[in-house]
Design a protein that fits this description.
alpha+beta, RNaseH-like_sf
Length: 97
């Protein structure tokens, strides 16, 4: 596939197929992070979710998108540090990049 001429849908399909092949969910815990704000710089929330858990917390006004993402990554790492699973992959704010 030519990534220059591929549609966004085609790229997403290839990405999901690659993730499924390299990190099959039956053997890997998929952890997703996201940081977002409603409005320019208010109601900022960092979130983490997986098949086993879901977390979110307010980050604070006047935070940047980077701050939201870092807070979400920190939450994910803190939660998975005590887990027995050895195969864990973290997907970080993929929809924004």
């Amino acid at each position: 596939m030519d990534t220059i001429t591929a549609t966004e849908t085609e790229l997403k399909m290839v990405t999901l197929a690659t993730i499924g092949k390299r990190f099959p969910e039956q053997h890997w815990l998929h952890v997703y992070t996201d940081g977002s704000a409603i409005g320019a710089d208010t109601n900022a929330v960092a979130g983490v979710y997986s098949r086993d858990f879901s977390l979110n917390r307010a980050v604070g006004a006047n935070s940047t998108h980077f701050d939201f993402e870092v807070a979400a990554i920190h939450m994910a790492l803190t939660d998975i540090a005590d887990r027995e699973e050895q195969n864990i992959t973290i997907f970080i704010g993929l929809r924004h990049y």
